[in-house]
Amino acid sequence: MSDVLSDTAQALIAAGLDASQVRAVIREQRARWGGAAVYVRAIDRDEREGAIRQAVAQGVSLRRAAREVGCSDDTVRRVLARAGACWAGG
Length: 90
Fold this sequence. Notes:
Layout: H1 4-14, H2 19-33, H3 45-57, H4 62-69, H5 73-83
Helix pairs in contact: 1-2, 3-4, 4-5
């Protein structure tokens, strides 16, 4: 039976990363997280927030940015508030 770390290692090696380095990092993660119940987010929060900030900086409305990124209008507002961004709304 495969696990998320094994799958990740195989994907990284298939993508061309050095197998010995990948295995070393996976070994460290197993030591750190092995046996624990771990939650893996379905989305990459940093990537989503970056896409939101970029869209709004390019003049996309909050509503359209939310639709393009696949989140709620409120999420867009929270991201911009955390970033200290100024926006016109809607």
